[in-house]
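Bit of a strange request maybe. I'm writing a small parser for structure token strings and I need a real example to test against, not something I typed by hand. Could someone generate the tokens for this chain?
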Amino acid sequence: MIVGNDVVDLDDPEARGAARRDRFVRRILRPAERRAVEASSDPDAALWARFAAKEAAYKAAVRLHGGAPSAPAAYEVAEDLAWVRLHALRLHLVVETPAPRASGRPAFVHAVAFSGDWDDRPRFAAGPHRGDPGADARSLLAESAAASLGCDPSRLRIVRDPIAGSWDGFGPPRLHLDGLPLPAPVSLSHHGRFVAYAHGAVAQRRRHV
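Reply from user aminoacidic:
Good idea to test on real output. This should exercise your parser:
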């Protein structure tokens, strides 16, 4: 399995009103995706759901080869948000939003893209951070993975290896147990007030715990 996830805070200043920024919309969405946004009762949420799907697919695709394109328009999102595709690579897609608030719209959108069987889909969640988005996202991921393994979260560590040419100089996150790598794909995201994670099955290493 490969997996990627992305969360967008819909109340963040850069997110509000984005569907009205025609140049931005045309840069990140394909024509069919733009039509879906225009027809939506909440164009901003519809736009960011598709953007998050593309970002999630990019994070998954770089696990196969470091040269995956980062341009959002390279990724095609299904009208019903069931899948996202890059050339021949087609990934399952889940887009979750919390229940609408009194304002009538959700607070965030969270997209998870993954390969493999639908029945073996990854575990994922999103929620508000407590102060340090990066640390809080790693903590939530470790707690979820530890629950699968039946171990204390303190024994897990999320690491990223330096990789020249990547956007921040590091590769995708990896999960370690007692200093040893686990064969489970993981993904982290944070934006505005929210953090999110997704990870594949880790129970196959339970015998080592």
